[in-house]
Design a protein that fits this description.
- The protein is built from no helices and 4 strands.
- By secondary structure, it is low in regular secondary structure.
- The strands form 2 sheets. It has a two-stranded antiparallel sheet. A two-stranded antiparallel ribbon has the order 3-4.
């Protein structure tokens, strides 16, 4: 290619895989397949999503301090 000429298919691109593209978007003409978790499935206060701050989880895990192990030794 010379100067600013392109092939019949246009300029080459670097596109993300469909598994790395949200299901409501497309990449290089193909539908994305990634579906992130619901906020209720992520521990409360944990941030996630774009830049790690797009969403905040709301899942309340109870009984964390009440975990015990039953010793069954004779």
């Amino acid at each position: 290619m010379f100067g600013n000429q392109f092939s019949n298919w246009g300029p080459a691109g670097d596109f993300p895989d469909v598994g790395n593209t949200l299901s409501d978007d497309t990449t290089n003409g193909s539908a994305g397949t990634y579906v992130g978790p619901d906020a209720g499935d992520v521990r409360s206060g944990t941030q996630y999503g774009a830049g790690g701050t797009e969403f905040t989880g709301t899942l309340a895990v109870t009984g964390e301090e009440g975990i015990f192990f039953l010793d069954r030794r004779p």
